[in-house]
Each structure stands twice: as C-alpha cells, then as structure tokens.
C-alpha cells in the first residue's frame, strides 16, 4: 500500500494489540512499514512472543520503535521445546525491561498439535509467571475452548484469577461469553473482515463496548481487501472499520474505545496520551 493509497488519518489514535514484526517477513522494509502504521495513527503496538529465543530481537525493536511494547512467552505450538527453566527465563525478562507488558502468547492449540499434556503444563507455568509479576496474558486458543475455560475457572476458584485477552478471536458467541464471564478481553483480527466469518461477526456485534480490542496478528490474516498478502500494523485500520460497520457506529468510536481498552490492559496510557496531546485532543473524549 503506497502513501497515496492510504486512507485518510482520523483523529483517535489506534493500538494494534497483537503483532509479530520481528518475523523475517519484515526484514527488508520495516522502516517503511513503520511509516505506514504511523500515517494511519497507530500510536502503540503490542508485540507477541512465540519463543524465548525471540526476546532479544523484540527488545531491540522496542529500542528502535518507541511505540512498541512486548510480551514474553511460549506459543502452544512451540511447547515441544518446553523445559522447566523457562519460567525463570520469563520472570527475568519481565523484571529486566518495563516495556514487557504481558506474558504470552500462551494457550492451547488442538487444531495443529496433539501434545495436550505438554501444552497444559506450559500454559499453567506461564499463568503462574503472569500471576507472580502481575501482568496480563495473551491467550491463543484454537479448538480448545472448553478445556481452556475449565482451566481458567479452576484458577479463579483457587484464588488466582487470570486477566488478559483472548487474541485473534475466532470462536462462537457462546464461547465468547465464557471468557467474558472470566473477565477477559476479546481481540478481533482480520478474520472479522472475512465474508463467511459469521460467528465472529456476531461476536463483534455482541461484545460489550469496553471489552474488545483490535489487532492484526501480522504477518498473518491480512484483512479484506488485502487478504492473501503479508499483513502489517497499518491494516488494523481495516479491522476497526469493519467493527464499526458491524456495530453501527463510527470508525472513530471503535478506534477510541478499543485503544482505551488496550491502554488499560497493557498500561499504554502514556503512549495514547502523548499522541492525543500532540493532536491537541483530550484522552477522555469519546466520539459518537
């Protein structure tokens, strides 16, 4: 997408609440990609972590792009490499850098993997890390909603409730209600722009206004009309626009409320406030 093709910048700053710009897909043009996300008013990005080996490179990206915050963790599809030293590694990373704002992405994936016992072990250990450092978690869940719900309910009953986000939501309204009842945020990705994603459309319409965020999960799941291309943070605008259409409100309102939710969850208030101050806006202003 060239600058000439970019939609006009609107007032409210926007948060891409989940991205992977450390991937090799961005190796050759990340500065140009950053220029595009800034042109679209993306004032903050939360970078997820797939394996601990990524952490030094993500930290370097946070040095390079001051609007970037990040998580540390192990993706469920990478849990074949889980070992008992990892929790201490994640704890050390959290204590080392205040730009670590979450643990994850962690979770369960029974669509592409069958090592359930190992996935649960890694999940529980990482949830313990998040509890110890008082950070939210970024949860990946694919074809495992019932089991994940039961694990989170058990933790709440044990006095260790989980706070965080169900990222890249692709479930049903009923499943969404389970996780909302557990206090979690629902994050919508490019999937919400797909014509046949009817269950996700219903979730986007029904989710409470203060309980959703928007994300790209780039370089994956580029939204329509970019589907099939490399995804990038600037495209989070398309997710916000589709959410607005589904919720019968202005895109400006979706940008505002989703970003405020991300700010509360991940502690991004200073980034949003700085962006709004630069535009002469008030952080508390809510568009219609």
TrEMBL record:
GO biological process entries: D-amino acid catabolic process
Binding site for a divalent metal cation 1: 18, 20, 105, 217
Root EC class: hydrolase
Note on cofactor: Binds 2 divalent metal cations per subunit.
Keyword field: Hydrolase, Metal-binding
Matching InterPro entries: Deacylase_DTD3, Metal_Hydrolase, TatD-like, TatD/YcfH-like
Residues where a divalent metal cation 2 binds: 105, 140, 167
Single GO cellular component term: cytosol
Swiss-Prot/TrEMBL catalytic activity: a D-aminoacyl-tRNA + H2O = a tRNA + a D-alpha-amino acid + H(+); D-tyrosyl-tRNA(Tyr) + H2O = D-tyrosine + tRNA(Tyr)
Pfam family, one: TatD_DNase
Enzyme Commission numbers on file: 3.1.1.96
Cofactor(s), by name: a divalent metal cation
Molecular function terms, GO-annotated: D-tyrosyl-tRNA(Tyr) deacylase activity; DNA nuclease activity; metal ion binding
CDD domains: TatD_DNAse
NCBIfam families for this protein: YchF/TatD family DNA exonuclease
Family listed: Belongs to the metallo-dependent hydrolases superfamily. TatD-type hydrolase family. DTD3 subfamily.
PANTHER family xrefs: D-AMINOACYL-TRNA DEACYLASE
Functional description taken from the UniProt entry: Catalyzes the hydrolysis of D-tyrosyl-tRNA(Tyr).
Name of the protein: D-aminoacyl-tRNA deacylase
Native source organism of the sequence: Candidatus Synechococcus spongiarum
């Amino acid at each position: 997408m060239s600058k000439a093709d970019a939609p006009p910048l609107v007032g409210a700053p926007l948060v891409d609440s989940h991205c992977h710009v450390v991937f090799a897909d961005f190796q050759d043009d990340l500065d140009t990609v950053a220029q595009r996300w800034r042109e679209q008013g993306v004032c903050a990005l939360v970078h997820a972590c797939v394996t601990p080996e990524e952490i030094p490179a993500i930290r370097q990206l946070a040095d390079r792009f001051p609007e970037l915050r990040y998580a540390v963790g192990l993706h469920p599809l990478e849990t074949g490499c889980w070992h008992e030293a990892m929790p201490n590694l994640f704890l050390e990373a959290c204590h080392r850098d205040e730009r670590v704002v979450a643990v994850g992405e962690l979770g369960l994936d029974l669509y592409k993997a069958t090592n359930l016992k190992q996935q649960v072990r890694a999940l529980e250990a990482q949830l313990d890390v998040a509890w110890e450092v008082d950070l939210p978690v970024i949860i990946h869940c694919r074809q495992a909603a019932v089991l994940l719900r039961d694990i989170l309910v058990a933790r709440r009953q044990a006095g260790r409730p989980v706070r965080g986000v169900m990222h890249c939501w692709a479930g049903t309204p009923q499943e969404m209600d389970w996780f909302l009842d557990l206090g979690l945020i629902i994050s919508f990705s490019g999937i919400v722009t797909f014509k046949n994603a009817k269950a996700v459309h219903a979730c986007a319409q029904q989710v409470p206004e203060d309980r959703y965020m928007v994300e790209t999960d780039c370089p994956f799941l580029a939204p329509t009309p970019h589907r099939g291309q490399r995804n990038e943070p600037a495209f989070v605008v398309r997710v916000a626009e589709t959410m607005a259409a589904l919720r019968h409100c202005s895109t400006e309102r979706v940008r505002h409320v989703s970003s405020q939710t991300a700010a509360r969850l991940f502690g991004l208030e200073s980034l949003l406030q700085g962006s709004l101050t630069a535009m002469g806006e008030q952080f508390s202003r809510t568009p219609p």
